[in-house]
Amino acid sequence: MIGLHTSLVPDTGTLLHAFGPWVLLGIALMIFIESGVLFPFLPGDSLLVTAAILAGALGITPWQIMLVGVPAAILGDQVGYLLGRRVGRRLFKPDSRVLRLDRLEEAEQFFARYGGFSLVLGRFVPIVRTYVPLAAGTAAMRYRRFLLWNVIGATLWVVGMTTVGVLLGGIPFVANNIDALMIVVVVVSLLPIAIGALRRARSAKGNAADSSQEVPVAEDSLR
What we know:
Largest sheet: none
Helix content: over 70%
Radius of gyration: 20 Å
Order of helices and strands: HHHHHHHHHHHH
Strand content: under 5%
Structural class: mainly alpha
């Protein structure tokens, strides 16, 4: 999954510089798309952290990053929620590369477990943050409640990631090794997904082992 994440999007530092004078618009657009337009492989976490670290070189300030990032994240989740209400699971297929049914089901389980707070927790988990608003819409969560949690989650995520970048940018070693840092950010942010996948794999093996043990018993009972 990490390979897929990094192969679909170029290095965030290079990407930010490529935006040129439109860097703030580029940041807002990428956050908006990742937040709810069903393309979960954009580097939202590393984008915000890198933008804050390179703010001076990009000709922007951390406050400007927050100013465009928070509304973009809120609006992206709004789109995801509306898609969930109007279209729901019909967009997803088991064999799809992006709109995979199992990813939606994971987000639905995450939403069922944490309720509205999942819109805050999910913000800090790549891929999950794209599908949780959709799950909320599919579950017909009350719009006012959704909007409240959406605003809280978007604000905490954008402000939090930007603040991390500001703090790291003050460390010379970090500023001089930004590429290595972004790899660490991506790996750490994907750890919850990797851990979840390992747990599901172990659970599946356990269920398969239980099933294989039950077969001889059933055969003996028929003799």
